[in-house]
Design goal:
By secondary structure, the protein is of the alpha/beta class. Helices cover 45% and strands 19% of the residues. Strands 12, 15, 17, 18, 19, 21, 22 and 23 form an eight-stranded mixed β-sheet that branches. A six-stranded parallel β-sheet has the order 10-7-5-4-1-11, sandwiched between helices. Helix 12 packs parallel to helix 13 and helix 16 packs across helix 17. It is globular, with a radius of gyration of 28 Å.
Length: 596
């Protein structure tokens, strides 16, 4: 009987091969069908937007608002995550102002994360949009209305809110975390080397102090006061409120929900959402029983931006290079690899008549900053180059801006921080005392032992200080040369200190107070062109458009539960990941700032 029994191999391999071939054929058919769907979607489907008259754009701001738009498809959840970029929003509002089918904008703020300069630029764009004669109505709702939500919304001539929603009108707050006691407990030492007189370069203070130094506290207080003054004055002008009253409301904690906000005329009225939609119908001149035509602004802006880019690439134009993120030698942020490629590309393109370098960076690697500075210099020697500063253009971010012909910054841009530092951790005691790990060594020369387990002696520390001072001196020289200032004048505003855009203009660190659109308009006028191409260039994906369309269909039918890391914990993790990447001498902003 054993002779008639089939072996495992004779059963398994034919079955496995059959399943494998069937799966492979199935995949081929799946992708052929999907390709056909995508092809028909792009070729035979409807126009990206078929707007009808009396349309209202629904501008719902959530997530992170940054300069560079992004889209990521998650194949496991079949979900497309899209982040709209500030340039898309600005161009979308510009186009909508001229579009006869668009009657107005309905703004809803959903606690987006953005810098204060970005918020300021959004307010300005909304105000310009309303000057076209069209309306912009803001509606505030949710468990907690943030101060940034209200700040942007206050640019609209009409602001409404949901009765009962909390709103804490409490002023600005900055907080630093210090790790010295933790490091002492773990017996981990950190040797800090700052440039000479860099007493304002407080990024390294958390490693060796338990509280802010006097210089750090002073610069932070001055910075917050300057930012608050701008916020207060902008809202005061839009809402026609007295600045003394607004400060009094903060000092007495008088506004704790939207009912109080209405009482002090910070908003027009508390309404339910359906009442606001009825109000919008009256604005566009339709009766209450007629459906309101609400068009997602994100879709409108993306399509408008894409169309503009397609046309602009075929004409003489200026190039806008978006430099966003930490400065590093490699990676997805402001890396030498990405930046040098884009700068060389526009420098050698005869159709590019000028360049706007948009910087939104707190700095980073000193070496990478120098490499990018050189490419910016070569580009500025060949073509008119302006710099537009976003939320941050500090330290290494400011370093690369210095060759520009003109530098623009928003009043609430955080800039300057002209200084450098290096951090050298020592974990020898931690390994031995806490983990029971000892080390021994063999070396050929005296200075061959620089590692995590070796603490610098006085001579080695002096060598490091000399190197850091040399980088700082070069930083001062770059600023003096680019800004046509004496080194002594630069030293007075350097020392690692940060400034608002308003204060930076007084110190001649920038030339013009204005946002991205202001810098683009000025350069277009100077070189005599009106088309603009943004870098890095992104082409629309038919597949992603299909997924986005499916997402939009399902969005109103059901909500999908998602497991998400809380924003606060995610911020700590990102900070930890950033620290892990630090190598070499740094030109980095001493802090990051969140406005709630």
């Amino acid at each position: 009987m054993s002779e008639n029994r089939l072996s495992f191999g004779k059963l398994f391999w034919p079955s496995f091969l059959a399943v494998f071939v069937a799966g492979l054929v199935g995949m081929v058919f799946f992708f052929l069908i999907l390709g056909g769907i995508i092809g028909s979607f792009g070729e035979f489907g409807p126009e990206p937007l078929a707007l009808q008259s009396n349309t209202v754009l629904h501008l719902k701001l959530a997530g992170t608002i940054q300069d560079v738009s992004d889209e990521t498809f998650d194949p496991t959840s079949l979900k497309l995550e899209r982040t709209i970029g500030l340039p898309e929003i600005l161009i979308g509002l510009q186009e909508a102002a001229q579009d006869s089918k668009i009657k107005g904008v309905f703004l809803e703020m959903k606690n987006p994360t953005m810098g204060m300069a970005t918020a300021e630029e959004l307010r300005e764009a909304l105000q310009v949009f309303q000057k076209s004669g069209k309306f912009a109505i803001a509606y505030l709702s949710g468990e907690q209305i943030g101060q940034l939500d209200y700040y942007v919304s206050s640019a609209c001539k009409e602001v409404y809110g949901m009765q009962g929603s909390n709103m804490l009108w409490s002023g600005l707050h900055a907080e630093s975390f210090f790790f010295k006691k933790l490091l002492d407990e773990l017996q981990i030492g950190v040797m800090v080397v700052r440039g000479k007189e860099n007493d304002f370069k407080s990024a390294v203070e958390p490693f060796y102090r338990t509280e802010m130094s006097d210089s750090s506290r002073m610069q932070m207080q001055v910075l917050l006061n300057g930012l608050w003054t701008q916020v207060r004055n902008d809202i005061s002008k839009s809402r026609k409120l007295d600045t003394l009253l607004m400060d009094s409301l903060v000092n007495t904690f008088a506004v704790r929900n939207l009912n109080y906000a209405q009482a002090y005329q910070m908003i027009d009225q508390t309404l339910y959402r359906h009442e606001v939609l009825t109000l919008l119908k009256k604005k566009v001149g339709i009766n209450e029983n007629t459906p309101l035509r609400l068009q997602a602004f994100s879709k409108y802006a993306r399509d408008t931006f894409h169309d503009h880019q397609l046309l602009a690439r075929q004409e003489k134009h200026i190039a806008v290079i978006l430099a966003e993120g930490d400065v590093a030698t490699e990676g997805e942020g402001v890396s030498t690899e990405r930046m040098t490629k884009m700068l060389r590309q526009v420098r050698d393109d005869d159709d590019v008549k000028g360049v706007v370098l948009r910087i939104n960076s707190p700095g980073g690697s000193a070496l990478a900053s120098e490499e990018i500075w050189k490419e910016v210099s070569l580009t500025a020697d060949k073509k008119p180059l302006f710099v537009s500063m976003g939320d941050y253009a500090a330290s290494g971010g400011y370093y690369m801006a210095t060759p520009a012909v003109r530098i623009f910054a928003n009043p609430m841009t955080i800039t300057g921080s002209i200084g450098v530092f290096g951090v050298l951790p020592y974990a020898g005691d931690f390994l031995q005392q806490k983990l029971g790990i000892s080390t021994d060594e063999v070396r050929t020369h005296r200075y061959g032992t620089i590692s995590l387990t070796h603490q610098l002696d006085a001579q080695e520390y002096a060598f490091m200080q000399t190197e850091v001072d040399a980088v700082y001196d070069q930083f001062i020289s770059r600023v003096a040369e680019g800004r046509q200032l004496r080194k002594k004048a630069v030293q007075q505003v350097a020392r690692g200190r940060v400034w608002t855009g308003t204060d930076a203009k007084r110190s001649r660190l920038i030339d013009v107070l204005g946002g991205l659109q202001s810098s683009i308009s000025a350069l277009c006028k100077q070189v005599g062109v009106h088309d603009v191409v943004y870098y890095p260039q992104k082409d629309d994906s038919a597949f992603n458009d299909l997924i986005a369309l499916i997402d939009e269909e399902f969005e109103n039918e059901k909500s999908r539960a998602q497991v998400q890391i809380p924003q606060e914990l995610r911020a700590y993790y990102e900070k930890f990941a950033q620290i892990k990447k630090i190598k070499g001498t740094q030109m980095r902003l001493p802090f990051t700032f969140n406005f709630y």
